[in-house]
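Tokens in:
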């Protein structure tokens, strides 16, 4: 039985395809109380399962990956802003396709500072949107690597605030 399990495992590895690439955005804004070190991040629900996710999507021709992240944020959440050109991190998940097939995906994530919230956008009414703290976002999402990105974002904001405070002493 152990030999059969080993053979099946090796066959699975042989036929496993590399993950499909997607691009996503962690959309953020300063907290409205004026404390510049605190931010809120935007979570949206997926259209199929209703789980909490970030805006993300497939490559778009020759469009640069950070521009794809901006476009997905607009289409899925109705936000406008500028995504950083450098990737903040990535996470993996299995995307459920029609018919039940699950496709492994890697999502390169870009930070996007939100400048504008739109009343109308392509997927309005198909998702729930919520602004939450980084800690709350990490609690809500399922993907461990995405949880980590929210924690890293929170830590980096706190470090930057501490450095700024030291500079004014």
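Residues out:
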């Amino acid at each position: 039985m152990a030999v059969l399990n080993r053979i099946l495992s090796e066959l699975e590895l042989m036929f496993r395809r590399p993950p499909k690439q997607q691009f996503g955005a962690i959309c953020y804004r300063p907290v409205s109380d004026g404390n510049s070190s605190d931010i809120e991040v935007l979570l949206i629900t997926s259209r199929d399962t209703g789980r909490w996710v970030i805006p993300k999507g497939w490559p778009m021709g020759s469009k640069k990956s950070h521009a794809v992240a901006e476009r997905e944020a607009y289409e899925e959440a109705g936000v406008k802003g500028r995504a950083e050109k450098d990737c903040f991190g990535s996470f993996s998940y299995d995307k459920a396709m029609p018919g039940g097939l699950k496709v492994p995906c890697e999502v390169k994530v870009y930070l996007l500072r939100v400048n504008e919230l739109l009343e109308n956008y392509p997927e309005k009414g198909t998702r729930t949107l919520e602004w939450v703290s980084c800690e709350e976002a990490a609690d809500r999402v399922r993907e461990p690597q995405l949880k980590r990105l929210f924690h890293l974002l929170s830590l980096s904001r706190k470090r930057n605030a501490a450095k700024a405070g030291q500079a004014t002493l």
